[in-house]
Each structure stands twice: as structure tokens, then as C-alpha cells.
Amino acid sequence: MPIPAHHIVATPPPFEAPPYPGDIFAGQTVLVTGGGSGMGLAMAKAFAQGGADVAVLGRNLDRARDGAEQIAALGVRSHAISCDVRNPDAVAAAFDEAEEALGPIGLLANNAGANFPILAEDISRNAWNAVTRIAIDGTFLCSSEFARRRIARGEGGAIVNNSAQYIWTGFPGDAHSAAAKTAQATMTKRLAADWAPYGIRVNAIAAGFFPHADSVSGRSEDGVEPLQAMIPAGRTGSIWEFGWLSAMTCTPFFGEMTGQVIVQDGGESLRRSLIMPDFIPPRERADGPWGWQ
């Protein structure tokens, strides 16, 4: 339903006005997994707005190249690479290629992931692996490859992981993703503690709903956001807001912060109350386990 006119809904600055100087990442290279589209592309663009050169990793090289072209249009160097983040040899080769093209990688954004609504009892082994291995194995393999290189160089760095706000509660039809994103958040804390002596910071964003061209939820229809009434802030997030916060955690402004999981969801995870719609088990929902098709 529409948000009542008397409610105050804060809107973000336009994409062209990032909350940090345009040279804050100057001379640095960031590698973004799953950076060719969606939330990964938002992360990549946010780093580019701060002057970072960007290596875009993706399983689909054409999509990675398309993302790299959009990033280059922001005035930085970019390079697209095809990589399956579940394969350690492929990850090492991708880092080699990225560093040959753009120089040493000092920043890492782990965004690669997969998700689709399915009842827990219907998840096959392949479906489970498809979601969990990308988020868990991929995040670990890319992070450890990054850390080994930074430690060998005697230099620090920063990592940001794309997690999800439902890691504390789960989400209907998301047993695979909730498990993977929870492991990713726990990994964030452990890696931060292990690598702090080397000057490597690791943080995560527990993201809520940020509609984009490839998302399956929250897209506006006839000017009305279908999810806005369930979010205390009165709206879903703008995709560049997620990108900006992700990049901000890697700036010197957050130089003391590590091992943190920051919730960015417009307060959606806080809305539990006695006055709520009746619970409908996921299997009994006419419009699918997520509540929409």
C-alpha cells in the first residue's frame, strides 16, 4: 500500500554525490566478485567513484565485461575476468590476471552469490551446493588469496562482504541462503581477528531489500514499491546506498572498524510486533514461499 503522506521518508543523495572524496581510493585496485550486475555492480561503481581501479569477476564473461564498461565510464580503469569462485586455482589465476592488468589488489568486495526461493524439504544436494558453496567457499577462497598476497607484500588492506539481514532469523524459502549468509558473517568476524595484526580489515553489510534490474523482489509497479509498507523507513534501499556503505567500510574513515556486520535494511528486521498479519506456512502460500512469484 502507499505510504501515508504525513510519514517522513528520507531519500538518499543522487548517485552523482557519493559521501566521500573522489580520490579516496586513488592508486588502489579493488576486486569485486559478481561485480557485473546487481549489488556487485553497485559496489564496484561505488569504489570507482572514489577513484579505485576495478577488476570485475563473474562466471559470465559477457556480463562482467558489460559491468566493466559501465565502471570505466566513471573515469577509472577496469578489467573483466571470468571466474568460478568455488575453484581455488581459478581464483588464484583471476588474481594474477587482475594484478597484471591493474596492479596489486588492495581492496576486495565479496559479492558473488546465488539464491532462489524453494521449500527446505525440496532442496536437492545440487541446489544446496549451488547456493552455499558460492557464498561460503567463494568468500573464503577469495579472502584467503587476497590475504596471502597482502601479507607477502607487507601491506594491509580491506575486505567487505555482502551478507543479508535475515542471518539472525532465516527467511521463508531461504534455508540454503540463510545458512550460507550466516556462515559468511561468522567468517567475517574470524578473519578480521586473524588478519588484524597484518593491517587487513574485514567487515560485512547485512543487506535488506535493494531492488535492481536482476532482483526478484521490491521492484516498483505503477510507482508503488510493493515492500515499502513493511519497512519502517518507508522504502526499500537505493542500490547505490548499498554500494556506498560497502565502499565506505574500506576507507580510512572506518580505519579502526573490523569484524563488524552492519545491518542496512531500513529497520525491516526491527518491525516484529503483536499486530502483524497471520502467519501462513510457506508451503501454503498461493504466491510462493517468498510471498511473491
UniProtKB/TrEMBL annotation:
Location of the Ketoreductase domain: 28-208
Protein's UniProt keywords contain Phosphoprotein: no
Alphabetical list of InterPro entries matching this protein: KR_dom, NAD(P)-bd_dom_sf, SDR_fam
UniProt keywords, alphabetically: Oxidoreductase
SUPFAM superfamilies: NAD(P)-binding Rossmann-fold domains
Gene Ontology molecular function: any one: oxidoreductase activity
Oxidoreductase among keywords: yes
Designated name of the protein: Short-chain dehydrogenase/reductase SDR
Organism: Sphingopyxis alaskensis (strain DSM 13593 / LMG 18877 / RB2256)
